[in-house]
Every structure is written in C-alpha cells, then in structure tokens.
Model the fold of this input.
Amino acid sequence: MPQSVLERAQRELLDWNGSGASVMEQSHRGKRFIEMAAQAEADLRTLLAIPADYAVLFLQGGATQQFAQIPMNLAGEGGSADYVDSGHWSAKAISEAAPYVRVNVAASGRADDYRRLPSRDSWQLDPQAAYVHYTPNETIHGVEFREIPDVGAVPLVADMSSNILSGPLDVSRFGLIYAGAQKNIGPSGLLVMIIRRDLLQRATRPMARIFRLAEHAAHDSMLNTPNTWGWYLAGLTFQWLLAQGGLAAMGQRNHAKAALLYEAIDGSGGYYRNPVDPSARSRMNVPFTLHDGALDAMFVRESETAGLLALKGHKALGGMRASLYNAVPLEAVLALTEFMQDFSRRHG
Ligand SMILES: Cc1ncc(COP(=O)(O)O)c(C=O)c1O
Done:
C-alpha cells in the first residue's frame, strides 16, 4: 500500500474524522461512515470513469468466493459459460464455477505452460453462453492481456484482482469486473465489483440473500456489516491515486517500472530469465529464474537483507517473482535491478 496512505491511517487511527474514535469503531449505519463510503465509491467512479448504468459493490469473501458467486448469479440453472484458461487463477475460476454452470473452456494456454496467451482468433466462443470469463492478469504466471477481447454481445467478466487501477480502462466494454483489494486497492478482506446493472436481474435460482448480488446492490453493499476498515483504506488509496494524476499517470509509471525490470532480466546474458512470451508479459507480476536454481535461497536471503522483500516466487512456479503494484515506486525497481546486477557479479 502507498506509504502516505498508511501514514494517514496511522494519524487517524485513534480519532477518525473528529469522531473521537477509530473508523473501525464507527457504526456502518452512522452518517460519518456512510459519507466516507459514498465518497470512496465516487472517487473510484471518477478514476475509472464508470458509467452510470454500472453498480459499484464493496463485498467480502475475496475473488475466490466470486469464482462461485458469479456463475450462481449470472447463469440460470443448466446454463453454460465460456472461460479462457490463461494460468493458475483462471484455472481456479473454472474449477470453482463447475458446480454452478456448464463450463466451456473456450481457449487454454496450458499446453504452452501458460507462457503465452491464446490469441483471440483461437477462442471457441458459444454465442449462447451466459458470459465470457477471463483473467486479464495472471498473478502467478505473469501473463497479461494487452487488449480487451471483443466477445460481441455476451457479457465479458474479468477477474482484475492483480491489475485493476494499474492504468486507464474502458469499463463499458465489460459486463462485470471484480478484484480482491489486496494488490492495488487496499488490505485483504475486501472485494470491489463493478457490474452492469441489468446483469443484477439475472439470478433466478434459489439462494440465500447474502449470495445474491442484486441484494448487495439494493443495500449499498451494507446488506450485512461491511469491512469498514478495508473500505476506508480503499477510499484513501483512491484519493492517493487521484492525487498522483489518476490512472493515465499510473499507467505510464507502471509501464516504466516493468520496462526497467524486463530490460535488466533480458540484458543479463541469461543469468536471469523470464519465461513469458514478450507479447504477453505482465506489467504487474514479473516471474524470473536464476541460471542456477541452487542460488535461489541465497538470492532471497541477500535481497531481504538489502530491504527488497517478497521476491520468493509462488510455490506453484518456484524461482522469483517481483510484483510491481501501484504502490511500488520506480526507485524500488531501480534498487532491485541494481541488486540483481550486483548479485550476478558476485555469484557469477
Ligand atoms: C488474479 C487473482 N484472482 C484471484 C485471487 C484469489 O483472491 P482471494 O485470495 O482474495 O480469494 C488472486 C490472489 O490474490 C489473484 O491474484
């Protein structure tokens, strides 16, 4: 998270907004909290230029819960949906959707070990599908779609957990966008959803109200007690993003950060390698390996000592992974590339 956001939260921790108590101690039905919550939504709408016919929801349960809740709400019983399998998280979305919808895997990068993205022309889409689901950025495999795929009139559903707010986005191209907060929005335990309002009426099967997205929209995401602390921190992050110049500025910054790191990897003469086809490389998550895996543990240890944290790769892939989320400044990427060069000189 941006340091200035954390510092502000620290300053306000014991006395938020002149209330004499923490934001976590406010009633979510109180005027102060409701105003703050509405402002957070308004700021997100400004950042993403969200059209009026889209609802914004602040939910719980993470992206994993949405893997099931989206098919429950968007597909009727016996309905089908198209899924694009581009890595670890889309594969999870597919397996969790299967109890609720007939899944058609329209395209898959599995045979390529998810090192490239299946091109749009290869997708076998079903015009009767309830929706098309894809994962614009695969956090573990480090592949990212550059363009929003054209899927015609079928609603496009996107798990943007790891690249939302990383640059400008045309929300009107989507039926539903969802993102766990813990990368570019705020702390874990909060999920932001942007959903075209007509899709809220799709749920026909019996389900508890807590699973029904239309209920959450009708109650301004306060059907039950929301994650007040997460919502507050998300609101501070949205304010920070606006002060940075909005998503156009973030997009440029993220492009520069990623270019710097990929240049360091590609220019290392094979000492470091990124397995992803250059056309699909993620701006947010950069997995890389060392030329000798026996050096991995030393790389992690020495990088931590140098103040470079969380570089150990996901257990599914091994190696290293640098995540370049919005809150990571260019200077941190510069420090990483300098460390990488120094490490390769010392352990050639
Ligand atoms: C793209 C993507 N989808 C889904 C998830 C799962 O999110 P959660 O743990 O919030 O359910 C993650 C992990 O954070 C992710 O990166």
Notes: The chain has two domains: 3-243, 246-346. The longest helix spans residues 246-266. Residues 72 and 207 are 8 Å apart (CA to CA). The chain has nine helices and twelve strands.
